[in-house]
Each structure stands twice: as structure tokens, then as C-alpha cells.
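Aim 2 progress update. The chain analyzed this quarter is reproduced below.
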Amino acid sequence: MMEDHSLAVTEPFFNLKPRWPHAVKSLFHLLQMPLVALFGYRIFSVRLLSLLGGCAVLILFRSAVRRLSAGEAAPLFAAILLACDIQFVYASHFARQEILICVSICACMYLFLRQDGMLPRQTVIALSVITGLSIGLHPNSFLIACLCGSLFLTRILVYKTASFRQLGLYTAITGGFAAVFIAASFAMDSDFIRHYLAYGDSEFDLLIPVTGKAAELGAFFQKLWYGVSGTYYLPDIKPQLLLFPLLLLCALAYAAVMRREDSVMSQRLAQVVCAAAGILLGTVLIGRYNQTGIVFLMPLCWMLFPFFCTMFGKITGRAVFAAIAAVVVWSSAQNVRPWLSQSYETYLGQIANLVAPDAKVLGNLNSGFYFENGCLLDYRNLSYLSENGLRFDDYIRQNGVDYLLISDELDYIYSVRPKWNTIYGNTAGYYEQMQTFIQNDCTEIGHFESPYYGVRIQELVGSGKQDTITVYRVNE
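Predicted C-alpha cells:
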């Protein structure tokens, strides 16, 4: 985008895999651009925005928790605990949009929680602007709309501290932002709607009935519990999966039982529970059960933790707080420990020993920060060879590929097909052609092992299996 001076471009590493431009993530990329301009195109630059987003979450989170607990210490310790949550750490250190969506979630929660009476007009407008701008970050901005919608309805129907007119104003302003992003998307792609829906359906089965999506919710949490993932890193979050339902149930019970005796606190607690319910409902409606999306619930649930501890009394509550905090911090440390000896720069250095950065290569996308723009072609293009009337050798010659960076992971994907077809396509359509081409038209110039970066399938990462990358030079 920066080199072409246009937001209406797609990734150069996909030239057969269908991709179409749209404006839904344009704000996210615009926020990344000054950091890339300042620090260069490297992993630090694109991840710095996520780290800044994580800091913003902690500030907004602490402000929101102040509305749910007495004193200054509890909000601070809750923020420290969130900062130690491994899923939050993960989201704050990867160049993805989830943590910025969390910024919007915490901002909206703070705006709702600071107003116990009727919502002022300016608060409704602020909520609309936050939701609207989030559309430029990621399609998961829909979850923010679900969160706000659930809170508006709770305040309208139960607590009488909002009105349908305010909900209509929120919807109108948010809809205006959506119209702008949709219009920009049509300017980039005149067939935007069809292409966007086709991509969502092919990658994530988003067009199946809602009942079918709802049936997958239990399986989603089961995968989180057992650490079942595709190519997304999935840390062990069993302590959180046990604790968070308890927090939500206790808060809901208190809000119901103490609605009259402690109306202010019960309303605040009920809003946090309804916000979490709104996000879960939105996730079901979208139907994209992405493991990284579990982080959207983390700030909401940790908001309830200080109040939960006060239910045990002052002394016992502190002991409960300390015990659970120790478990969470220990669990996070165990997740981080295997990576302390690993270096992405070492992985890129292993590639640099064999291939120049301006060489045209076919390889794994995670080597992209080494090669110059337009030099890397991801091997997920290969499953689209047949529908484009190409053979493997045609694709290599037509694109002027000089080197092949072939991971043993491809052998594994082929051997267990069709298990990974959803992510990597049907390897049966090109694997044997590739092996023949390597045997007859390539020269091996070296290989290296990379247990953590040489594979992307999470069940193989760090296992010491299928982690060899062999570099072949394409013969003249």
C-alpha cells in the first residue's frame, strides 16, 4: 500500500489465491504506516501498534474497574493481572487487530459504566463514533455493535436509563460510518459485496444458517480447552476458562438478588455480564470461531474479578485474589518460557545464508519480512493451479521464480490430506508435480531446521517434526 500509494491493493504474495480489495481494514493499515515509515518494514514496526493498543486497553480497563470496586488498589491490581494474562500478552504483541478492538470494547464499557443515570446525548454519540471507526479496523467491529446494542436494551428495558430514541441515534451514526466504509469498498471493487461474501464463505463457512453456527459454539470452547488450533498460536488458558464463567454467574446473581438493595452496583455488574453476552451472541451470528477472538472476553471478565473477591470478605478476598493471580501468572510464564530461546531474526538469518532478499522465491508466508516487496509467492497459491489451467512448472517459469523454500510441513500436509485442505487447499493437485519439478529442474543448495518457525501448523510447532526447510535453486 505504501509503495503503490493506494489502499486498493491486495497482497503481492497471493497471485492465484483469490483476493479483492476493500476498505474494512483500511484504518488499521493507516495506523501502521507511520510506524513502518519511522522504523522500517520489519516485525517490530508492525507489532508496535499492537503494543500501544495493549497499553491503551490497560488504561481504559483500570478506569472502568474503578466503577466496579472501591479504592485505588483493586483497579490497579486488576489491570496488572490483565497485563499478565497470556491471551492478552499474545494479542498485545502480534500485528493483528484484536487488541485494537479490545481498546474499543474497554472505551465503550467505560462510557456506559460512568453513567448510572440517563445516558447523555454526547455519550451516545461517542459510543457511535467508537463503533463506527472500529469498522476500519476489522469486521469484528460487529461485536462492538452487539455489545453496545445489548447494553442499550438492558438499560432501556430493565433499568430505564436509556431510550429507544438513543438507540436509534446510535444506530444511525454507526450506520453512517458503515456506509462510508462500504462506499469506499465499492470504489475499490465494484463487485465488493459478492466478493466479500464469497471469501467469507470459502474461508470460514460464514453463510451457513445461524442454527448451524450456534451448534459450533460448544466445540469452539472445547478446542480452546484442549488447545486444538490450526495455524493460530493458542496458549493454555484453562485457568481463565474455569474462572470466567464463575465470575459472570456471580455477577449476574448479585445483580438479580441485590437489584433493589444495591441498585447502582447491580446495574453496573449486569452491564458487564450483558456486554459479554452481546459479544458471544455476535460471535454466533458471525459464525467465525477464531481462537484469537477469545481475547474480546478477557477485559470484561477481569473487570469482575475485584468485586468477586470482595464477596469473600476483606481478608479471605485478598487471599483468593492472591491465589488466583499466582495461578494465572504461573500459567502465563509457562506459556512464554518455550519461546524465550527462540528468535525470528535467527530464522530470517538462516534464510539469508542461502538466498538474497531480492530473489524471486516460492515459500512460506512467515519469511515475508526478509524478502523485498513482490519477491515472495506463498505456496498457498498452488492449490489454485488447476482452475487457472496451470501446472507447477508453468507457474514457476511464468513468475520467474529463482528459488523454492520447501518445508517438510508440505510433506505432512500431503500425507494427512484432506485434513488441512481448508487452510492450505488441496495439495493433491500439485504435490507430485512439485516433486517431479524439484527432481528434474532444481538443485538443492542447502537446508536448515527451525522447530518454531519452520512450520505453521500448531501441533507441529516446537515438536522437532517436519521442521526442515530445504532451499532449491531453479535451474536455467
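The first strand starts at residue 361 and ends at 363. The radius of gyration is 24 Å. These observations will guide the mutagenesis experiments scheduled for the next reporting period.
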